[in-house]
Amino acid sequence: MVDTTVFWIFTALYVAMTLFLGYLGYKRTKASEDFMLAGRHIHPWIIGLSYGATFISTSAIVGFGGISALYGMGLIWLAMLNISVGVLLAFVVFGKRTRQLGKRLGAVTFPDLMGKRFSSHFMQYTSAIIVLIAMPLYAAAVLIGGSRFVEATLGVDFNAALIAFAVITALYVTFGGLKAVMYTDAMQAAIMLVGMVVLLFLTFALLGGPTTAFTNLSNLSPAIPESLASKGMVSWTAMPTFGSEIWLTVVTTIIMGVGIGVLAQPQLVVRFMTAKDNKALNRAIPIGGLFILLTTGVVYTVGPLTNVYFMDTLGKISIDAAGNNNVDNIMPLFINSAMPDLFVVVFMLVLLAAAMSTLSAIFHAMGTTAGYDLWSHVKRRRKIEGYSKPSLSANKAGTFVMIVVSVGLAYLMPGSIIARATAMFMGLCACAFLPAFVHGLFSKSPSALAAKLSLGLGGATWFFWTFFVHIKESSILGLSKFLTGHDAILGMPWQVVDPMAIALPVSILALVVGWAYDVMWSKNEVITNGRTAE
Amino acid sequence: MFGIDDPWILAGYALAVGFTLACIIYGWWKRNEMEED
Prior knowledge:
The complex is a heterodimer.
Chain A: H1 4-27, H2 32-37, H3 44-55, H4 58-71, H5 76-105, H6 110-117, H7 121-154, H8 158-206, H9 210-218, H10 226-229, H11 245-260, H12 266-272, H13 278-314, H14 318-322, H15 330-338, H16 341-381, H17 392-412, H18 415-442, H19 448-468, H20 471-477, H21 479-484, H22 499-521
Chain B: H1 7-29
């Protein structure tokens, strides 16, 4: 066991660096545009690192690392999608248009961009309300994940860890805005990069080099438990049998959950709007791509290899070594038992950095939505019509309020809901926002009717399916049971169909129907220039 | 290769590294791109 004094010294150094960079952001935040968009003038390398650090949270390292230890190396396809869709496509296709449109329309938040692009208060307020309902849950999940880890490694009481974690992040987000968030993100990303590269080398050194390690992993196939083999798993170094239950789990989780869900997340979209020009976005792409390869690629390689280590030392595969069949225990257990003491400390900082960089981005996105999209507007609209100017103090107050709400949720929500929060947030973002967002970015005359139908029906379908059909959520949310007496109102196989698989097609269909109606029968709400009456 | 025989896994790694290289090449190639609008 590592001496906790060493842990504390490193933790104190990390917190001091974080607060110093937060202070730097605070000193450079003079106006609301600095707070909300870092002055639209952030260095490309910081954009790339910040995007990557926001993208990768503790769940990507511990959660998906554990899943790859269970199901094998097939998850490398998730890393591939994170790089190709999450970085290359996101920056080249979405990022540039988002930046140009955001600048031209003077948009400062994601709901603001939606509202101004479709000249619709409905789009802005509905987007804002969805953000303010779903994001605090996601924030609570990240907050709890980080605090559990601090509790386990530093021996700090969970409640104290949660409060300390929230207060440190709240300090620099509330006072320093997006500049502080992105400066600290860059430092946190650097810690993650160093930690992951060292982890890969140490793992290979421990297991006799890549070829020996993977050969031994391939030879472990007879140790695959019957419960997994019967569902299609053949080896940790091979994809599961095509069409089998595990193949479907791996592929639908990969493609539906993470591949698509990442494209319309407000806290990532806002990163594109911080770039001064297209040059800055282009120069951020190599940093973002390399970062994702060296974090997710390493995790999905080391995860399966933990089986070789645990088989050598304990005579068990990883999931059996972890205890309680909990995949989340695999990576921390491997680090704690297989790695040198100093690296255990470094890896703790990696997880702390991963959690804090994601949390700060969520806090900031929620805060600006509360402080600008809702608060400023409601206040101004009582006096004058039209769009208001953002206020620095309203943003700071909004950020503080949303942080308090998130901390409250972290205490109040049952663990079973928190465990589903990340997937729920990503699914809702994709179903409610993605089709309308794509339409707004690429259509020369976007249809407000199409966007409203897509957001309304996509969001409503997602809520319906989550609360009443998808058993993983409906059974813990309890509304279906309360109203109908059953955990889900449809039988198999509908109960295991992801809400996104239903609601995203509905959202796309609604967009197409609304757009076709506008183009063929009515020109009233097709926007060509400026704002239409609403 | 490296003790991994499954072509799907090898393809996954090749594509992950390939897309990372694409990110680097694109970023370098377009590092001085002018604005369109």
